[in-house]
Amino acid sequence: MCEKTSLGVGGKMTSLNPETRIMIMRSTDGRHNCRRQILAALAVSLGPFAAGLSKGYMSPAIPSMQESRLHDGLIVTDQQASWIASLSLLGALVGGIIGGLAMRLGRRRVLLAVALPYTVAWLATSLSTSVNMLAATSFCAGLLVCCITMITQVYVTEIAVPEIRGCLSSLLKILSQIGILISFSLGAYLNWSQLALVVASAPVLLFLALLFVPETPSTLLLRGKEQEAEKSLQWLRGPDADIRQELATIRTNILASKQYNDGNTGKFKVLLSKRLTRPVLITCGLMFFQRFTGAHLFNFYALTMFKKTFRMMNPHGGAIATSVVQLLASCLSGMLIDNVGRLPLLMISGVTMSIALAGFGTHAYYGGVNSNSTNLTHDDPGSYDWIPLVCVLTFTIAFSLGISPISALLIGELFPLEYRSTGSALATSFSHLCGFVNVKTATDFQLHIGLHGLFWMYAGISVLCLLFVVLFVPETKGREIDEMDPKYVESLCINR
What we know:
This protein has 21 helices and no strands.
């Protein structure tokens, strides 16, 4: 695996169409060493690891805040807790815009710039003495972590060869799930302030790891740094790899993109180009369905929901079990994504999530009916705790296997190089806007339609997600990121 071609011909291939050039490059004998690509991906994956710690923080931290109280005995209400949780997503919305603009300066450079401030934000969270201070630090941490997660995805997409690109992208999700699992596990023993100190340590590791990896070759070439781009690509592909053709391919793609944009004069016309609008619509559509299928509730309110549906089982145990299954499903996705393809996993994910969410809502409905009934039976009240747990675990497997890793991967795959920062910013900001609305309104929806109604609504949205995938999402398995012809990139994003 991880075979990568090097074309040892002196002539140019500008007369060949993109598909022919890709076939020639892949059929030529030659291999690249994937070890350094894996090391670089592991280094930047400490960013998603830090993000996972922060995602898993809220679930145990919110009950801890409400039980232990803050400074001077201040009580955190349910509404205040929802603001503390959701403001991190509102900050991420702003972070997506800022990160997209800053990404033009270099992927690695921006990651270095935000890593240590992210640590400071979590130190401030640990030392917070009021709800307002917690809300402010939550917003700042969300802003910074969005920059980290968005740019690490683009970084891995740009450094990896097609044969392992999906696997390395899944590595980011795996490290994120490990972070969530650690937060859930430590949350059973640490209070909210102590847990925040644990989260604050991870960005320091990211900063140190980034000192040993290069900037992406595509970014360096886009900024006109030819020699640095050559050194970066040589480091990534191995000292014995022939990188001349791959370097020429990236350079040709950049020149072709500039010619394409010059032919479409006017910024407004460029913004309406199918090369930008189609990938934006596809990725934003996937992000909408990812956020409004209830996944965030299992990160932010796992303990709260399990307390409402479990009768005897320990809610902390349920949250940890969910996180473990999430991690295993992410590992499985990493093994399947480059072999099975994106679309089959997305479709399996949509069907299974719909069934699991409908099952959880049904159990919550009948559990509520029975608890209010005057004709109570003498059955063991905890005998049915396995039903919501199985539903949650099934949903978690489906979510982590398909839509969660693939929607992030497609952000890096569908956008052409010159639009990658802009497109990533738009899709990521929209994703966090949806996440903010979902987390903030979940409590209100429960008051009006009940927990069962909330999950029935999510099940309906999952069905729509399946239809969206079948009708609009293209298969990108095995595609080269640095395609040579702008027209070809556009063809990836049309409806099948």
